[in-house]
Amino acid sequence: MRRAISFSLFFSLLLPTSVDAQATDADIALQFRSEISSLVKRGRSLEDIEAVLMRRFSDLDVDGTPGISATDLEIGRQSVFARLRASTLNRWLALDLDGDFQVSEDELRVEALKSATRPLRRGQTMIEPTPEQVDQIVSDLIAGQLASDSDGDGALSLVEISEDANNTARVQLERHREVAAFPPQADVNNDGITTSEEYRAEIARVFASLEGEAGGGMPPAASAADVTSAALAARRVLERAGLAETGRSFSGARAGCELPSPPEGAQAYFVGAYDGTALTDIHLGDPAQPAELLDITVPAGDAPIYLITTFYGDTILRLRGAAERVRTVVSTTPRIGVIGGEEITFATAPAACHIEVWGGVSPQHPDPRSFFSDRLGTPLAGAVTGETLTQVDLGLGTTRATGRLSGAVQMNSGGDAAEAWRRFQIFNPGGFIPLDPATVRTAGQAVKLNQRPQMAGVAQLVDQGVLVRIPQKNSAATVLEDDAGQIKIGGKTFIPGFGDDAIGMNNLTYIEERPKTWVGRAPEVYLVTRPFTYPAGMSGAHAVVFLLPEGMAEPRGDKGHNRIQRISR
Questions:
Q1: Could you read off the pLDDT of 91-107 as tens digits, one per residue?
Q2: Residue 127: beta bridge partners?
Q3: Which helix H or strand E contains 205, and what residues bound it?
Q4: Other Cβ atoms within 10 Å of 412 Cβ, number
Q5: Extended beta strands in 175-325, E state
Q6: Alpha-carbon Rg of the chain, whole angstroms?
Q7: Selection from 118-122, 274-278, 506-510, 518-522 with the highest mean pLDDT
Q8: Neighbours of 147 (CB within 10 A)
Q9: Does residue 226 contact residue 208 with C-beta atoms inside 8 Å?
Q10: How far is CA 302 from CA 75, 299, 321, 322, in A?
Q11: H or E element, residue 517
Q12: Cα-based torsion angle of the residue sequence 449, 450, 455, 458 in order, rounded to the nearest 10 degrees
């Protein structure tokens, strides 16, 4: 039976009676920061970002009073809600082929058939769906759309369509960037109105404090000079608005770096990097994160050593030489382990002490030698930094070129596991080193993993017959990273992160196989012959594709970024 509806009732249904609970202040601030970070990564300058966001400021300032008030924001939310709702309504009404303002099952079938008859993709292969598959897809699509058919008459009326449009818009509203355009901290004097000066100051403050994402520090588009000028710009607009006395300090993020006092007469050293060169079968608290390892040679001497460390992930320091001199290890990251030495005190420094030394010197990540010398009130005896560290000599202040470390297992250079080992070695040139957890000192606990991590674990499973490597088409594409740290693939520009980053594009996975050289290859594919547990740490460039026979349970453990494809037996 067809249902009639008056347009007055129709439009009353479109007006939301209330907007669902808004995001918290923290959520809004995070979304604001994320949006600016995204613009920076696309190479936008502070002036470009300000222009984009100030246009939004002008669009929302609609209540006749200068500045953005709660009234402006509510009107803005209602406006965004209306646009989102209209978009959903348009999609529904586009299916109304006979113009009677309702969508029947026959009309839904027309659109469903368009989707169902498109070729299916499996890897790089296009497969025409069978008639049975087409029928199943059409049935599933129609059933999903008719979920909004509240009266069960087999058609979607304007009442039902409008209810779905309202519900969909409410969900989309909380993710919409215009809704979170004005973080509460922008209203510096807390008078309930964010002026244009206050908003410009907040844009500049976030730009200046932005530490970058994907582990890379400030992207090349934001130089140290840009960041400094952003801080000054924010200060100037606050001064012009008479708000300088309540403005936030741009160096405040470092003011909380309070280090524990070194032992009497101690020499202080700093060692920091993105990662160590070798991988172990130990975790220091997170089973999904196998600890990396590097060697540190301690020079001879009488004074105790106070060692400050910064690493991206959990790291084990294997001490050589006069290891007994190391008495204190202060880590700016949660978990650090030590092999060697005698009595060692572990301490975790506040987050304000964390400096991403692998991203270059900037106002957010100053030179560690001067920074920690200032915090301790005495000059550091030495500092060694880099992206990946292998064998550090504290006395010389150097690190040896990347190479295999002692204790690394022999990698199988032949057979089906050879490719897994090759990929493992790209990111772990120091090799895979099994350890006895009893030899590792840490503030927490060192725990042995049940199997080898990352691609070393895949190689182990291949040798055990659990996995069978399925060779892929031998195609590779190579792109070079430019001086600005960017790569271009298929007309798109990427700013890759540090470490084990991976970029999927054009059915290839690009990884940095050599410095500044990104090679795209088909994903590694393995057939599963019996149940197993995922090796730890299989994210980013370490992820593979597992072909899982129908009926077999999915692997146990942390899936990481691995993909599962079901196949018929």
A1: 788 888 888 888 888 88
A2: 120
A3: helix 196-209
A4: 15
A5: 267-276, 278-280, 282-283, 292-298, 305-311, 315-321
A6: 29
A7: 274-278
A8: 8
A9: no
A10: 70, 10, 13, 10
A11: strand 517-521
A12: 180
Q: Dihedrals φ, ψ of 513, to 5°?
A: -75, -25
> In which element (H, E) is residue 503 found?
strand 503-505
122 SS3 class: strand
pLDDT digits (tens, 9 = 90+) for 153-193: 888 888 888 887 787 777 666 555 444 456 666 777 777 78
* Angstrom distance (rounded) from CA 174 to CA 172: 6
Question: Three-state SS string across 283-323, please?
Answer: ECCCCCCCCEEEEEEECCCCCCEEEEEEECCCEEEEEEECH
Cβ–Cβ < 8 Å for 398, 383: no
Instruction: Name the amino acid, one letter, at 467.
Output: L
Closest CA to 506 of 526, 522, 517: 522
CA distances (Å), 73 to each of 175, 329, 425, 523, in order? 15, 50, 53, 46
Could you give the C-alpha distances from 142 to 107, 156, 216, 417, in angstroms and in order? 10, 11, 46, 46
Question: Tokens 């959990």 map to which residue?
Answer: 314
Q: What is the H or E stretch that residue 32 is in?
A: helix 25-41
Q: 271: helix, coil or strand?
A: strand
pTM of the entire structure? 0.56
Query: What does the block give as tokens for 254?
Result: 């470092």
Distance CA 461, CA 392 (A): 33
The backbone torsions φ and ψ at residue 301, rounded to the nearest 5 degrees and listed phi first, read 160, 175
